Amino acid sequence: MNKANILISSIIIIIILISACTKENDYNPAFPANEFLKDGIYNGDYWPTNGWKTCKPEEVGMDPEKLKQLNEEISILLKIHADIHSVLIVKNGYIVAEQYYSDEFNADSVHYINSCTKSITSALMGIAINKGIISDVNQKMTGFFPEYEIDNLTADKQNITLEQMLMMSTGLEWYEMEYAYDDERNSFYQWVRSDDRVKYVLDLPMTAIPGTGFNYNTGVSHLLSAIIQKESGIRTDSFAMKNLFEPLGINEFLWFIEPNDIPTGGHGLRLSPHDMAKFGYLYLKNGVWDGTQVVPENWVKESSKPLIQRKYITDFYYGYQWWVRPDGYYCAVGYAGQWIYIVPDSNLVVVFTNSLSEDDYLQITTPERLLQAYILPAVN
Q1: Residue 27 confidence (pLDDT) above 70
Q2: Domain span(s) for CATH 3.40.710.10 in the chain
């Protein structure tokens, strides 16, 4: 999203907010600031394996008034039917603000994180490579699946690498962002209805030379899960539990398993906001957790680089299954407004869960706008 779009969105939102208030000074939020802003003292570093500590925003250099404004705007947005479920802000390892705006979800609920799953799968790939289960990102996609007789097999397809899969630059024909997800022309729509989701992706024709352009492809992310499962010899969710979730103290999750017994690599995972924040904090700490290098540091660094320009969204680039803004932060992003923001220079992790309309530009850009309008400016 460019600055002009953000400005236009802000102006429109201001107009909506003014019209939503019937009279001046009659604002009575359903979610008061004293429920949103946390209490407590900052007592130095710790690891939130067994739970997050809280402190007042000002204890870690955040402006509580700016955060109150954030909560007030969300309260009004709810009145105009923006389905915001939660926001959680971690500064210097402490939760400074947190609220659950939906009767359906609370702090203990696992929430669909949709395509944030891709960033989890990327972490698992980095772990698998570090363990020697997979050689490196230069291995070829088709070489992992000798059991398949692959259609439309060309030299270009045979040269697709893991790195190009991670960067969404395979050159395979795939139309996911061009059509609504319930549109029969959408490749995701067709893929989830196929008999074999791995073969469906492997059989796709080529439309570009690998590595030459970005094309968002959830099917390719699923192949990453299939590769981890094949090479490790255990199902991807079990691999995740042993090598990623257990070290972080993530004990409860749900992951959709497709009919061929492979956890979907590009979507389908459910985590609580607290555990989404743990994953973000792991990356904020360059893959280290309580003295253990859970994800290799070089993998975190490479994953969060602006490696390729994202199609359609000019201010965002793409790394290894992460959205990256060159001006200072990167994020895991999921359908309908699931976000895990990592802002290294501010030692900040922000989590949003929502059920926003993908067809409504103002709704679906709400987390990004709120981050830039309130949360980042609150950091002193």
Answers
A1: no
A2: 113-330
pLDDT, mean of residues 26-31: 61
Asked if the model's pLDDT at residue 165 lies above 70, the reply is yes
Q: Residue 29: its pLDDT value, please?
A: 66
DSSP 62: B
Average pLDDT over residues 276-300: 98
First to last CA, the chain: 25
* In contact, 212 and 100? CB cutoff 8 Å: no
Q: Are 145 and 198 spatial neighbours (Cβ–Cβ below 8 Å)?
A: yes
Q: What is the largest CA-CA distance in the chain?
A: 69
Residue whose entry in the numeric block shows the structure tokens 């690498």: 161
Residues 16, 20, 25, 31: is their CA dihedral positive or negative?
negative
Cross-strand partners of 247: none
> How many helices (H) and strands (E) in the chain?
15, 16
Q: How far apart are CA 73 and CA 71, in angstroms?
A: 5
The sheet with strand 254-255 has its strands ordered as 111-112, 269-271, 254-255
Strand, coil or helix: 34: helix
* CA–CA gap between residue 335 and residue 291 (Å, rounded): 34
Kindly state the average pLDDT of the residues 20-34: 57
> What six digits make up the tokens of 268?
């389908």
- Structure tokens belonging to residue 218: 């959830």
A 10 A CB-CB count for 334 gives: 24
Residue 349 pairs with which residues in a beta bridge? 90, 342
Nearest to 228 by CA among 129, 333, 159: 129
Distance CA 345, CA 329 (A): 8
8 A C-beta contact, residue 356 and residue 366: yes
The reply to whether CATH 3.40.710.10 applies to domain 113-330 is yes
Helix, strand, coil % (nearest 5) of the chain?
40, 15, 45
Instruction: Return the H-helix or E-strand segment holding 90.
Output: strand 84-91
Query: 195-219: per-residue pLDDT in tens?
Result: 999 999 999 999 999 999 999 999 9
Tokens at residue 320, please? 């290894």
**Dihedral pair phi/psi, residue 290, rounded to 5°:** 50, 45
Number of C-beta neighbours around residue 91 at 10 A: 24
Q: Is residue 7's pLDDT more than 60?
A: no
Give the β-pairing of 53-54 and 348-354.
Answer: unpaired
